[in-house]
Specification:
elongated; two-stranded antiparallel ribbon; 4 helices
């Protein structure tokens, strides 16, 4: 969603994030610039990142990022952290 459109629907964007856990990506010149998301989800993601940084096992990755997770590892970590999916 472009910035102009987001300005015109900010209340709806916030309601969708807050009530339905539906994030909205806002673009500038066609490129992602920001995401509006639920505060509870954002706080959990910050905690998850901190947890992974403290408890991850650095090294052994081929992409040059010692803290990188494979897609499967990331998915497993998120499932374990958040528990069951929201309906």
């Amino acid at each position: 969603m472009g910035i102009e459109e987001a300005r015109n629907d900010l209340g709806g964007i916030v309601d969708r994030a807050r009530l339905r856990y539906e994030p909205t990506t806002i673009t500038r010149q066609g490129k992602p610039a920001a995401v509006v998301t639920n505060v509870e989800w954002y706080e959990k993601v910050k905690l998850l990142i901190a947890h992974l940084e403290q408890n991850g096992e650095p090294g052994g990755r081929t992409d040059g990022d010692d803290w990188a997770l494979t897609d499967d590892e990331a998915a497993e970590a998120v499932r374990a952290f958040f528990g069951e999916e929201r309906s």
